[in-house]
């Protein structure tokens, strides 16, 4: 299975105490499941709605391309891929 890097930013980075991890995963859904297992409740409460869906204001990018939060299993991974998880950012 492919080895990938997951990068996390701002709020998620602060809550989890890390800006990134390396995983071995077959698709984005598998990577998110592993992050759930690794970081537990802090990760779930930050990224997911109570109904289990990814919060709508989070953006997931796989090698710079937007990942459909509703169908992360469709995004197959290959070694060297980078999955970015961006939380909401405010500014002006």
Describe this structure in words.
The chain has 92 residues and is α+β, with helices and mostly antiparallel strands. It has a single domain (3-86), classed as Beta-grasp domain (Ubiquitin-like (UB roll)), CATH 3.10.20.30. Helix content is 28%, strand content 24%. The chain is built from three helices and five strands. It has helices at 10-16, 28-39, 41-47, and strands spanning 3-8, 20-24, 59-62, 65-66, 82-86. A five-stranded mixed β-sheet has the order 2-1-5-3-4. Strand 3 (59-62) and strand 4 (65-66) form a beta hairpin. The longest helix is centred in the middle third of the chain and has 12 residues, at 28-39.
What is the number of strand segments?
5
Provide the gyration radius in Å: 12 Å
Q: So what's the overall shape? A: globular
Output the CATH class name. Answer: Alpha Beta
Average the pLDDT over all residues and give the rounded result: 94
- Alpha-beta content class: alpha+beta
Which characteristics define this entry?
92 residues, alpha+beta, Ubiquitin-like (UB roll), 5-stranded mixed beta sheet, 3 helices, 24% strand, globular
Short characterization:
The protein is an alpha+beta fold and 92 residues long.
Topology record:
Layout: E1 3-8, H1 10-16, E2 20-24, H2 28-39, H3 41-47, E3 59-62, E4 65-66, E5 82-86
Parallel strand pairs: 1-5
Antiparallel strand pairs: 1-2, 3-4, 3-5
């Amino acid at each position: 299975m492919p080895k990938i890097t997951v990068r996390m930013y701002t709020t998620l980075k602060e809550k989890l105490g890390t800006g990134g991890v390396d995983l071995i995963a077959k698709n984005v859904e598998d990577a998110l499941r592993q992050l759930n297992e690794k970081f537990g409740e802090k990760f779930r409460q930050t990224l997911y709605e109570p109904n289990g869906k990814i919060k709508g204001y989070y953006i997931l990018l796989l090698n710079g391309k937007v990942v459909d939060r509703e169908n992360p299993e469709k995004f197959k991974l290959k070694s060297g891929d980078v999955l970015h998880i961006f939380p909401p950012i405010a500014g002006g």
